[in-house]
């Protein structure tokens, strides 16, 4: 199965740029979108002709903000919004179960606005990992995709020294990602490509950052160790435009 994740930073804006044309060429089995900034009636139709058989939307209660959306060529056994984690109703999680796998499409909070939002982000991180660990105890293999809003290591952003006091690269945020890996989750891109540098998924709109590849890798696919043998490939589709993020994905046998 080919799974792709993309923070679109406004699904209507991407649609207006014909930014989903690549979907018909690449033909993912599952497409997970974050930061759709729209409610169901506002989603443009059609976005593509690729025959997804089902779609799920979790819009934020605040209009034009946050939100997640998933498309799939197969029907999930169950889908949930994990409201006990996303209790502020920002539409940040879609939790899909199929067989012995739980797939999470997540738009993790940004902590740059204030100390309060950073605290909210860290609680979200903690509650989310506790939830996935509980599912693992029940025998579920876990796939986590989305905008994590943190670059893990110095090689995951172009200017680590300049950003060491910026939310998105703070020691406390990076430590949570250390914990995630210590608990037995794999950063699929690093699992496949090792310590390759200059591989980013987000670029500021300022100062021609994308053209100069001054970016951050903050969009990820993590899988639990139970699924390691099923992973075939992981990739970043950095030639696809339409958002300040680019899509990332994995090929996995499920």
UniProtKB/TrEMBL annotation:
Entry's transmembrane regions: none
Site keyed Transition state stabilizer: positions: 149
Keyword Magnesium: yes
Gene3D superfamilies listed in its UniProt record: Endonuclease/exonuclease/phosphatase (3.60.10.10)
Entry annotation: catalytic residues: 107, 147 (proton donor/acceptor), 245 (proton acceptor)
Cofactor comment text: Probably binds two magnesium or manganese ions per subunit.
GO molecular function terms attached to this record: DNA binding; DNA-(apurinic or apyrimidinic site) endonuclease activity; double-stranded DNA 3'-5' DNA exonuclease activity; metal ion binding; phosphoric diester hydrolase activity
InterPro entries reported in the protein's UniProt record: AP_endonuc_1, AP_endonuclease_F1_BS, Endo/exonu/phosph_ase_sf, Endo/exonuclease/phosphatase
GO annotation (BP), single: base-excision repair
Residues annotated to bind Mg(2+): 7, 35, 147, 149, 244-245
Magnesium in keyword set: yes
Endonuclease/exonuclease/phosphatase domain ranges (all copies): 4-245
UniProt keyword annotations, A-Z: Hydrolase, Magnesium, Manganese, Metal-binding
Residue(s) at site: Important for catalytic activity: 219
Listed cofactors: Mg(2+); Mn(2+)
Annotated site residues (Interaction with DNA substrate) in this chain: 245
Homology family: Belongs to the DNA repair enzymes AP/ExoA family.
Protein's name according to its UniProt entry: Exodeoxyribonuclease III
């Amino acid at each position: 199965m080919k799974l792709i994740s993309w923070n679109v930073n406004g699904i209507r804006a991407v649609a207006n740029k014909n930014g989903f044309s690549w979907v018909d060429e690449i033909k993912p089995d599952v497409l997970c979108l974050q930061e759709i900034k729209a409610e169901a009636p506002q989603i443009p139709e059609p976005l593509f002709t690729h025959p997804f058989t089902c779609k799920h939307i979790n819009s934020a209660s605040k209009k034009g903000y946050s939100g997640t959306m998933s498309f799939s060529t197969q029907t999930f056994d169950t889908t949930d919004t994990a409201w006990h984690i996303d209790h502020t109703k920002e539409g940040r999680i879609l939790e899909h179960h199929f067989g012995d796998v739980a797939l999470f499409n997540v738009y993790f909070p940004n902590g740059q606005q204030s100390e309060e939002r950073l605290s909210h982000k860290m609680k979200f991180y903690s509650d989310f990992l506790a939830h996935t660990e509980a599912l693992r105890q029940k025998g579920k293999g876990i796939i986590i995709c989305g905008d994590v809003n943190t670059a893990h290591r110095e090689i995951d952003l172009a200017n680590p020294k300049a950003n060491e006091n910026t939310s998105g690269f703070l020691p406390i945020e990076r430590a949570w990602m250390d914990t995630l890996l210590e608990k037995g989750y794999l950063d699929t891109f690093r699992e496949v490509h090792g310590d390759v540098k200059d591989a980013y998924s987000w670029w500021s709109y300022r100062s021609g950052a994308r053209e100069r590849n001054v970016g951050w890798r903050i969009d990820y696919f993590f899988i639990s160790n139970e699924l390691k043998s099923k992973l075939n490939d992981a990739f970043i589709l950095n030639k696809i435009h339409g958002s300040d993020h680019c899509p990332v994905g994995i090929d996995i046998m499920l």
